[in-house]
Amino acid sequence: MNEQVTGVANQGVGRVQDAVGGLTGNAELQAKGKIKEAVGTVQQAFGQAKGGVKDAFEETLEGVRGHVHEQLDAVETYVVSKPLPAVAIAGAIGIVVGLLLSGRSKTIYLRDAR
């Protein structure tokens, strides 16, 4: 939102500079005013685009959070209704993760020289 406010302010200042330059016949001031107005327009557009992206991201994040909560509720329901299979599944997952994280064995096998 800050970029939008800055953009509108720059547009206003640019218009004033353009008008004053036109009234006084100062072409340099008039050109600076036109440039500042253009910069303000770009800043304002950037602020609007940034706000739209932020809103879309927040909406997606809320959807993901809702889905995660639904899945956690389903897991909780399963664990409460079937505790022994849930413990067995958790143990199996723990063993697999432990094996994956342990890495390769450092054992070296030597062959007899014959």
UniProtKB/TrEMBL annotation:
InterPro entries found in the cross-reference section: CsbD, UPF0337_stress_rsp, YjbJ_sf
Record's keyword terms, sorted: Membrane, Transmembrane, Transmembrane helix
Native source species: Caulobacter hibisci
Coiled-coil features, chain-numbered ranges: none
The organism's place on the tree of life at top rank: Bacteria
Residues of the CsbD-like domain: 4-55
Descriptive protein name: DUF883 family protein
Family label: Belongs to the UPF0337 (CsbD) family.
Transmembrane parts of this sequence: 84-101
